[in-house]
Amino acid sequence: MPRQVNNATLELVRSFEGLYLEAYRDEAGVWTIGYGHTGFDIAGGAVKPGRKLADENEALAILRVDLDNVAKDVEKLLLIRPKAELNDNQFGALVSFAFNVGIGNLEKSALLRRLNGRDYLGTIPEFAKWNRCNGKVLRGLTRRRNAEAALFCSFPPPVISAS
């Protein structure tokens, strides 16, 4: 079974993407809807001008599918040892990063090379290097990369079982 993203990751992505029930062009000129959705979905096809979602629940359902798909792609890029050693927040930080910059950019990044080399401390500053759009530093991307790095450095809350 593929690894699932945790709630901390879901909330990080939601907070930075924001909710848009009608399609719009993002800073890179890409048609986007919901919580950062840019691809296809079963109900409505491609994101294009005039595309609308019914409500936040539809946007959230699409986001969950998007994050699950990105999580599968991230897992494929991780070597066995880092994959086994990452906690849910570290994995989630990678999923958020790849959701935003694209899996291809993660694949060719020094961030992934450091992580797969088990240089976890060296991985952290690599997030900050991805704060530009069309060559321009964006404050929102800087904040997001800082939040992803913070998530990467944090531990998920313990699971308390009722016994």
How would you explain this protein's 3D organization?
This protein has 163 residues and is mainly α. The chain has a single domain (7-153), classed as Lysozyme (Orthogonal Bundle). The protein has helices spanning 7-17, 56-77, 80-85, 88-101, 103-107, 110-116, 120-128, 139-153, and strands at residues 20-25, 31-34, 40-41, 45-46, 132-133, 136-137. It has a two-stranded antiparallel sheet. The mean pLDDT is 92.
Shape: globular
Supply Rg: 16 Å
SS-derived structural category: mainly alpha
Largest pleated sheet: 2 strands, antiparallel
CATH secondary-structure class: Mainly Alpha
Number of strands: 6
- Total domain units: 1
The whole-number mean of residue pLDDT values reads: 92
Question: At the third CATH level, what is the topology name?
Answer: Lysozyme
Percent range for β-strand residues: 5-15%
Helix coverage percent of residues?
40-55%
Spatial order of strands in the largest sheet: 1-2
Low-confidence stretches: none
Q: What series of H and E elements makes up the topology?
A: HEEEEHHHHHHEEH
Q: Per CATH, which architecture?
A: Orthogonal Bundle
Count of alpha and pi helical runs: 8
End-to-end C-alpha gap: 26 Å
Question: Which key phrases capture this entry?
Answer:
single chain, two-stranded antiparallel ribbon, mainly alpha, 11% strand, 163 residues, Lysozyme
Gist?
With 163 residues, this protein is mainly alpha-helical. The chain has helices spanning 7-17, 56-77, 80-85, 88-101, 103-107, 110-116, 120-128, 139-153, and strands spanning 20-25, 31-34, 40-41, 45-46, 132-133, 136-137. The protein has a two-stranded antiparallel sheet. Strands 3-4 form a two-stranded antiparallel sheet.
